[in-house]
Here is the input.
Amino acid sequence: MAHRIKANAWLVMLLGTVGLQLAACQGNPGAAYQNAKVSIAHNKAGVKTPNDPEKLLSIAASLATSKRDIQQYNREYGKYLLEKGMRRQAYQAFETAALAGDSSSANRLVRGQVDGHYRPSNLSKVTQQVYLPAAQNGSSVSASLLMAELVGKGQVRGPDFKTESYWLERAVAQGSTTAGRELAEKAERAGNIKLAASNYAKTDKISKSARALRQARVYYLGQGVRQNTKIAHAWMNVARRLDKKGAGELAARVYRTTGGSRDGAYLQEVASAAGISNVLPQGRITRDYRAAKTEAERQALIEPLERSADGGNADAALILANIYIQTGGSDDKIAKYLGKAYVGGKSEALNLMITRLQRARAGSPSAEALYQAVAAAGNRGSVPAARALSAMYSIGGAKPANVAESRRWLRKAADAGDTKSQYELGVDLYENGDGGGDQAVAVKYLQMAAASGDPFASSYLKTKQ
Here is the structure.
């Protein structure tokens, strides 16, 4: 009994001491901060402490008066909250520190806004006092890219914020390939193909002719960009000057894929000038197929192509698939012939399969056929296929949503050398993985992306070191 009385007395005395400590900290931010650091150290060492580090850091951050203390206390408070998963409150603390001039917190805000984790309540103020200085002093290429985005989208305005091109050019000077591509794309949208080619050349690892052919293809077919025949035509003009045969072959493929509906006469001219004669069949067959008045007439047109495609002719398979797509044909036949075309070497069939898979009805035979074909391409190292499957599993569609499968396909794209996938996988594993093991893997992929010149990966790694 005496032992219990002594123990209870000791507990009352200890709690009283803690209460006195907290009371003393209420008016003393320095004491609150030091007590918080001690409590955090004790917790990490496995020693229980009655003090609440979060409350103590909150007191220190809210009562700090000197610039140095405001920076330090709010920065450390933000880090603690972030570790606890309290992201919104953490960024509020980082914002206070950054507005007081803390460069580390400023970089966190830049990265947070780029990643979509942070949106300032007063964007103009944060941009003026945090983003703009970070971009001007050249310490952060991410800040230059963010300024370009904010100005380009009209989210901030004023002479102090300059222009989108100004910040992109600064980012290019800091070594950003992303900014170089954005400048090139901006010139494309303005119709200045000469300037676009010059900007691409500054960051490209491919030849000028390969770039011209690529841009002509993506704008004719709308692959990852809004389809634009005018821009595609201009790039094709560049391509045919640099690689006549390559331009002719591309013109033939585009004509077959689109049935001659996009810049058909010009594509025929480019193909013919290069000695490529197999341009017209699909266009003629499509027109005749649409004009046929009976099913028997349509079947008579299609049967020779089906025999050829079923015998392994990839050209015939692609023509058939496109005819069925354009005339509302069977989903199962479209999936079948796109698969045959791709296996036969028609790489352009993959984008069509991906597009149709994204719209396919779950459980249908065509959805399964498309999935198997796209998965086979992803397993053979196709980055677009792997990324498409990762996106599908992230939200569901032809297959149910599955985080593990989404991450597995993203990892295949990353392992195939895709810098964007390496960065996205690294961030996902670091932020949402199971802890130490996943974070180690995350760092590996982020380092791979950074080594390939991704500024966001480099910036992200710095925040985690």
Observations:
- The first helix runs from residue 2 to 26.
- The radius of gyration is 30 Å.
- DSSP finds 26 helices and no strands in the chain.
